[in-house]
Amino acid sequence: MSRILAIHLLNDRSGSPFVFRQSLEALQKEGHKIILFTSASEDGFLSDIPGVNYRFINYRWSKIKLITLFNFAKVNLHLLLVFLVKTNKNDIIYINSILPFGAAIAGRLKHSKVIYHMHEVSIKPEALKKWLITVVNHCASTCIHVSHFLKDALQLTVSDQQVIYNSLPQSFIQLAKNNNQTASTSHSFNILMICSLKDFKGIPEFIKLAAELPEMHFDLVLNASPAQIEDYFRDKQLSQNINTYPSQKDVHPFYQNTDVLVNLSRTDEWLETFGMTVLEGMYYGKPCIVPTKGGASELITHNQNGYHIAGKNTDELKKILTQLKNETTLYNSLSKKAFESALTFHPNHFKKAITDLFTLKSSH
Description:
Blueprint: E1 3-7, H1 15-29, E2 33-39, E3 53-57, H2 65-86, E4 92-96, H3 101-109, E5 113-118, H4 126-139, E6 142-145, H5 148-154, E7 160-163, H6 170-180, E8 190-196, H7 203-212, E9 217-223, H8 226-232, E10 242-245, H9 252-257, E11 260-262, H10 276-283, E12 288-290, E13 306-308, H11 314-326, H12 328-342, H13 347-362
């Protein structure tokens, strides 16, 4: 088996490192030697993967864009220099997301195979996105896309491009199955959204929706610290029926106690390329409301296991949520179909697709 040099810049609790961990665990069990370059973190999804060797990189996100851009350029220069020294022709460089371009350039210069796992399409500024796409087109031997939407949106010229849908770990699925056997004791109709602390994720829309549906309860789980959340909401008025929570290691209680999961991302600012929280909600049998465009819409069939509704369409959201609250037969039908749809994204399919790809690449 080959040596895989894996890279993900920011080890946090967002969707792309969550998926990347599953890939690395599957590849490690197949016998590949994995060296992971990522930022140091005690509770990121990429922390403490058994059998994986770590090389920590100094990358931090800042709310000041110029500082983030400086850190981004600095860490990529570091990766370029390190990989020029450390990489050999037989290595596979496995890059998670489009961002670590320094490793890709080094891989091309050292004639190594470069495999990208693509997760994002909404990158700003546009000049940066064009640069990153150019690097991918010139350096990648293979690109993995998490949805057909992403593959079509990026329009890369890389000859080998494959769609491998994300999945959830078997441990998550088993716990969801166990929890589903325990009925929620909540008497309120609960709406859940889990997202990053960004306006374009639809947080203002979620706040407005809660204010206009006082008979329902709203939970907002954010990939952020308590201090960041306090700063964000300092000048915002929240209704009594909404609770906010910082980044959670265990999201199962939220799924177990909710009735509907929503994703209100603004499609003119941010297009979801898959939607891990949507899949998590589906395994709990929760009807999901997702944007009308993007990868999340590939998981949901409108009027069958959920709905495609724009986050800014508050009237339609209120109508559907009220209908689901009041019509038990409709709710139960969507709930059943949500769970059945989730089974088509089983982790065994994901693991086989990933390991087959790397086995093929390591043999050529």
